[in-house]
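User: I'm new to structure prediction. If I give you an amino acid sequence, what do you actually give back? Let's try with this one:
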Amino acid sequence: MKKLLLLTALILLPLTACIGADPNDTAPNQLIFNPVEVTSALAITLAIDAAQPLTDEQQRAVFPGLDTDFAADVYYFNGELSGIAGYVEGEIWLTLGRGQLWDWFDHNFGPGHSQRSEIHSVEVTAFRVNRTSQPFLQADFTMDNIVYRVRLRHDTSEAAQARVAELVEQIILGGPADLSTLMEANTND
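Assistant: Good question. You get back a string of structure tokens that encode the predicted 3D arrangement of the chain. For your 189 residues, that looks like this:
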């Protein structure tokens, strides 16, 4: 009998979304952080029946363009890849998943309510949440039906925005993740 591990994640729901920067003021490959006001939270539980740390080889396959040290775990449910989550430099959370991720908040604000950036031909939606208790930056994008998220907690400064933009660019330039080694590792257990 498999042991079932339950993870609880905090889901933040935006009640107000502000219009992002003027697209005419945006240079090519510049990441636009849309301001979002978040005033409520919701907790969800994710079912996971297996988790394991990524090996160095798997890290290079999953994030081939990333040139910084990080630690990450891969999660499975019913033998299928559920997602990957890890930290870079303590406060930066990297996640990815096939087709979808565990959402922290809804970013479907409708036309004109959020400005998307194009970074090396990949559409990226980025947010800046300036909450007193838990400010954060988040950037989401998709390559080859793999959804990526870069989230930096506790800082929304220009330096933090530059670091998130740098990581997003490194991941995009490295190309899509090779998830085959993760599925092989799960079937070998």
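You can read the tokens as a compact description of the fold. Here is one thing that stands out. Residues 1-26, 106-111 have pLDDT under 50 and may be disordered.
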